[in-house]
Amino acid sequence: MIYTIVPKEKKDWIKHFFLFWGLFLVLLQIQRMVFYFFYVDTTTKDSNFYSEVFWAFITGIRFDLAVLPIVFLWYDVLLFFFYLLLIYRVIKPKTYQIFALILFFIEWYVMIHIALANVSSILNYGVNNKHLGWEYFAYFRDLPLFIKSIYSKNPEIILSLFFLLFLWMGLGIYFIRKALYIQLTYPSNQFKISQFVLYLMINVIAFRGGIQTNPIRPADALTSKNTFINNLRLNGIFTIMHDFSDQKDFKEFFPPEENIRFIQSFFQEPDPFVDPEYPLLRYMNPRKMDFYHFKSELSKTKTEYRYNMIVIVLESWSAKFLEPYNPNFKDVAPNFNRISKQGLLFRHAYASGGRSANGIFSILSGIPDRAGRTIFRSNQVFNRFGSLPYLLKEKGYTTIFAHSGDLNFDNLKTALPHFGFEILIGKEEMEKSKKYLNTWTMGYFDEDLYDISLETIKKQKQPFFLMIFTSNNHHPYTVPDKRFEIFPESDPEAKFKNSYHYADYALGKFIDNLKKSNIIQNTIVMFVADHTHHTNLNYYEDRQIPFLIYSPNLIQPQVRYDVVCQLDILPTILAMTGGNTFYSSIGRDLTLSKVDSFAFFAGGSDTDIIGMIQHPFIYYHYFHSPEKYLFRIDQEITYNNIAREYPEVTQKMDYVTKNLYQISRYLENKNQIFPEEVILNELKKKWIKE
Length: 690
Fold this sequence. Notes:
Blueprint: H1 2-5, H2 10-39, H3 49-87, H4 93-128, H5 135-141, H6 143-153, H7 155-180, H8 193-208, H9 227-233, H10 236-242, H11 256-266, E1 281-284, E2 287-290, E3 295-298, E4 308-314, H12 334-340, E5 344-350, H13 356-365, H14 388-394, E6 398-403, H15 412-418, E7 423-425, H16 427-433, E8 439-440, E9 443-444, H17 446-458, E10 464-469, H18 494-516, E11 523-529, E12 547-550, E13 558-565, H19 569-576, E14 581-584, E15 599-602, E16 609-614, E17 617-622, E18 628-632, H20 647-670, H21 677-687
Parallel strand pairs: 4-10, 4-11, 5-13, 6-7, 6-10
Antiparallel strand pairs: 1-14, 2-3, 5-12, 8-9, 11-12, 15-16, 16-17, 17-18
């Protein structure tokens, strides 16, 4: 043990690495066992439960290995630096020995501190059903109060932890005293620089969780329907460090009580809030729909509509290039232009984020994604969101997600089943079919995606909910053949427009085939972009996206001019199924009143931004700047900040924007957006009409 603390020979260094890594891996597995025994009685158990537990312990090692570089790399790099000074005779053996012991004492303290952070994360699961994230650093500032609170409820836990802390530090001091008495000499079998570089490479692989394309993420543990099993795989150190960069997303602008009061007054009518523990949770009263005029009224009795729902998320479809939004562009997307005259077009629709993940999350949850790193890549993807496919599945819908690219991107493959999708179609599934041959950078072409989607829904029991996420308008803007290259090379945006034109061709072909199959007779289709393509767009164009609801047998052609966004899709679809359900969303039901309509957004071309649109204004708040930015969107677009000209408007929009973002992140952090099944079942007894 002593020469692993002060490694001299090559064999000492090898023992040093194996001992410290092995010791910490054992410590994490012991804590995983503690987690298991603490909470195993709080979860449901099916026939596969104990098999999943076994594999959670095995696969959890991958997450444990990912934290070892965080714990040890700084220590080993500094120790090796002093070792180099020793072997090149810059310092004497005794000096090296003293530096090594100082570093060991610091590392020994860091190890127990990090182990205690994992213990805190285990205790947090009992409160919030998740491991700790960035909020650990907030708790650390209030550590005395935190310890006092736990001691008042479970004094044996605190006393045991203090005993282990003193025992651990006592062992460290014992090892240091023993090491002080060894007579160190210059090494004879040196540990070489090339060997240390190999060790650094091993650290990189461990930190990434392997040599796969994307580094390991908390959401990679999400492979079971059981939240307990998913969290058993993880350790708190991994989730805390993974969330460290997200602290700004959880900034509190107002006291939580004030924030909740404002939000509940802001969304007061017509659906009541039902549980103070879940401040956004509302009961959607039964809706009696007039589909032809696309409006509804509240009903005192249960109503139910079982139309199929298709949401087509159009990759990078900027509204600027569509004739209904800009008469100067007739040739880019003639099929959409034609279909838009047959459906309900929203003239002022805006993206709730700036990336595909932001748009998909907003549509599925009715909650805005983070301005920074998407929730899909975070520990909070384990939370309960009351997502659209989950709620529709409760109403008897078959839920399907189709995308022609790799579903591992943005962690969709593991996140989407948690959100309620039963059937996933991605690049892998399309390859297995052996039907589709043409691929490009992002996967298969849109034509093939629409084809496999149509073939899939033909085989499904109705009603179904299908979300299709296209890819063909994504950079590098590839088309399958030259007949779609209709714009000249002299046009600086020719590649994008040609790609857009092909994506529109594939869309038109899908709608025609949908009509031929007669599925359209009982189906409502929504077309909405995930975001714009961001290039050569002013601040208004960079937010504006197409949004069209199409069902020729149900909904009359019409144009609406109220402000809408992706967050409105969840409550609107629930209303179209008859309501009588619970939901948590900051969107609004578009079948009801159009008064005070607004669009909220978080992130975009700049990920450091939140804001809202309420005609005729658009407001921006930058996290890194105290300045408030207000612009008009009903006049010629300029970049003159008019916040000082309209102080009351600016103040109001600033207040609403920050409240909307804070409630989303606050409840995400607390895992209080949507309740667990036990609580939900009790609420159903009180509210749901049979």
